[in-house]
Amino acid sequence: MGAYQRWFGVQPNTKAATLIFGFCHGFGLSSKILDYEISPDGLLPNLLAFNVGVEIGQLLALGAILIAMGFWRRTPSFLKNAYTANVAMMAAGFLLAGYQIAGYFVS
């Protein structure tokens, strides 16, 4: 949406930003699996199965989003509503991140 460029005068490398946020996301998920009581004997297969399942779920969600976005882009309402949709998605993301961070410090 160009806000980072307007506010700070530079554009970050999107590949590096994706990698950094991906690591944060992965560490968050991996720390969540510690809540489950998994025996040390089957730890590696369970971790692999969990991560493969998460990745498959992300690919399915991404596929559904790309299909829906492809149809929406062909409609006349796309250009006038895309910015608002981006703002709403970012607000929801910040709200969920704040919820998770607050839960981490409260528990």
**Radius of gyration, taken over Cα atoms and rounded to an integer in Å:** 18 Å
Main sheet overview:
none
Helix fraction by DSSP (H/I, runs of at least 4): over 70%
Number of strands: 0
- Total domains, how many? 2
Q: What do the pLDDT scores average to?
A: 85
What is the terminal separation in angstroms? 35 Å
Structural class, by secondary structure, is mainly alpha
Gross morphology: extended
Q: Uncertain runs with pLDDT below 50, 5 residues or more?
A: none
Following the backbone from N to C, one meets helices and strands in this order, namely HHHH
Oligomer: single chain
- Tally of helical segments: 4
Q: Approximately how much beta-strand content do the residues carry?
A: under 5%
Describe the protein in words:
With 107 residues, the chain is mainly α. The protein folds into two domains: 13-74; 76-107. Helices cover 79% and strands 0% of the residues. The protein has four helices and no strands. It is extended. The two termini are 35 Å apart. The mean pLDDT is 85.
